[in-house]
Amino acid sequence: MEFTANWFDGYASIWSHILPSYSPKRYLEIGSFEGRSACHFISVTANLSPVEVCCIDTWEGGVEHQGLAMSAVEKRFDANLEEASSLARYPVALRKIKALSNRGLVMLLSEGKYNYFDVVYIDGSHQAPDVLSDAILAFMLVKVGGLVIFDDYLWGLGANSEPLMSPKLAIDSFINNYQRKIQPHYGMPLGQLYCQKIAE
Prior knowledge:
By secondary structure, this protein is α/β, with parallel strands linked by helices. It has one domain: Vaccinia Virus protein VP39 (Rossmann fold), CATH 3.40.50. The protein is 36% helix and 22% strand. The chain contains six helices and seven strands, in the order H-E-H-E-H-E-H-E-H-E-H-E-E. The chain has helices at residues 9-18, 36-45, 70-87, 101-110, 128-141, 167-177; strands at 26-30, 51-57, 92-98, 117-122, 142-151, 182-185, 192-197. Helix 1 runs parallel beside helix 2 and helix 4 packs parallel to helix 5. The chain is globular, with a radius of gyration of 16 Å. The termini are far apart.
């Protein structure tokens, strides 16, 4: 597999520790880039049982990807997921949705996939309105007992930062509004925030 960025590497050991306790078989990812996190999910889970992996991305990049050849990024994603699946002990059902996240998530809901996924990983747009939309739609798609993982919780914050250009405002709003339906897992590294859905 070929990865040109190591943004996820700091969390790989945490996922390896946490994911098995959820016995996840259905994984949804919003924002995939080269597929590093999806490949790690496959390596952790598909040696125990068959899994489904659904990845949503435009592969057009955001403001943080200026100057990158996103067509090459998408090709690496395709090759990496194919290789990770071929190395797994059990079958991996892959689905790639090339679309804006709100459209891809609504598509899944229109297919009846309410309470369907065991794990949803949100790492798409970093702008607060987009992250909030992703979080609300993801809540509908993840099953009770399942896990929602937010990446880049503190991304873009600084003395002269614009709050609407950072995920934190949206994630905090989601947690405050859904506090009776989710259980945040604190004590994790500040770069990611983990929430378990406990009620509809």
